[in-house]
Each structure stands twice: as C-alpha cells, then as structure tokens.
Amino acid sequence: xxxxxxxxxxxxxxxxxxxxxxxxxxxxxxxxxxxxxxxxxxxxxxxxxxxxxxxxxxxxxxxxxxxxxxxxxxxxxxxxxxxxxxxxxxxxxxxxxxxxxxxxxxxxxxxxxxxxxxxxxxxxxxxxxxxxxxxxxxxxxxxxxxxxxxxxxxxxxxxxxxxxxxxxxxxxxxxxxxxxxxxxxxxxxxxxxxxxxxxxxxxxxxxxxxxxxxxxxxxxxxxxxxxxxxxxxxx
Length: 235
Description:
Blueprint: H1 2-11, E1 16-19, H2 26-34, E2 40-45, H3 64-72, H4 78-91, E3 98-101, H5 109-121, E4 126-127, H6 134-146, E5 154-156, H7 166-174, E6 181-183, H8 192-196, H9 203-213, H10 215-224, H11 231-234
Parallel strand pairs: 1-2, 2-3, 3-4, 5-6
Helix pairs in contact: 1-9, 4-5, 5-6, 7-10
C-alpha cells in the first residue's frame, strides 16, 4: 500500500495521504514520505485494528461495534491514544497537515471531540469531512468550528471505494461541484502481505492505482478545469 500511494503521487494525480502511526509498515512509509517532499502527509487516526501506542500496548477494538461499546463504558482513552499517534508521527520528522480517522470513527461524538481538540493543540488545521449523515452534520460542524478546524466543501469516493476504474473516476471529475472536494482512494499493489491482511480492499487497490495513473483521468481534469491541490497549499 505504501508503494502504491508513492507511485500514485509520483506518476499520477494523488496529492495527499494519511499515515497510520500504529501501522506495521510505519517506518517504510516515513522513508517514502521523506523521498516525496511534495506529497502532503496527514495522520490517519486509528481506534480500530492494530495495537494501542499506550502501555500496555493492548489490541484496539476490532470493529466499529466493539469501539462503540468501549466508548460507552469509557474503556478506551480516546484523546490519549490519538495524541500518542500524532506525537509518533511528529517524532518521525513529519509535520502532518490534516487529520482523518480509520473507518470514519470521528463521526462518533466522543471521537470527534478528541480529534478536534488534537487538531487545535497540534495546530493541524484540516479535518476530514466524511460522507454526510444529516443527524450528525450540525454537531460535527459546530465542534470543528469551535476548535478552529477547516474542512473541504465536499467529500467523494466513499460509495466508489473498491469499485472504480479510470472511466468512473474521469466521470466523477467531470461532475464535481464547485468548491473544494476531497476524493478518498485506496491505491496499492496486491501482493502476498496484502492478501493476508484483514481488509476487504485487496485486488481493487491495483485497479484504483491504475485509475490514478491513467492519462484519460488527467485529461478529464483539464477538460473540467479541475485544479489538483493539497492541504499544505491551502493552509
């Protein structure tokens, strides 16, 4: 996955990524990020899967329902865990420009509160605005605004995840609304390690990488007058 992201930036239209501080390939990701200074790097904050960065380094909840149960009984130190992840990325020499969460867990109010606090304390201005859920939209905006956080105008890619190739991506680009849109994607190479990983996104990562590298997709950007940006240039 690290190599897929790097190649999608170096030869394609990908401008930004987020890094999992508790990921098994963290050191490799940091090395690649140093070799690609034009690649915007943020924090992919994790409360599901893998191990905590806090002693005793116990496994994190394995699923969204398990996380919600842990939140309900206050069995997980959300702020402390996420702050430790940001500090690890900073200690590796990377200054993150934006925050998002694995499985969009910051839609849960306790997680959103912690993410917004972290954004303010570490001066990370941008937080992902994930797919719209009307019942949460008002509070989501209020919490981020109270902490001085910024979001894009639009978010795309959730429904397309694992399902698109170059023609679908080109069509999406041509239909983008006015304003700033974050497009979520998951490029990569499907080798043995990925096939054994606990993720549903395997062969689809190679297809997404091909789409991000496709010349027709880049032509669609030109035709539609879409400008590629990253969070660093917007700050």
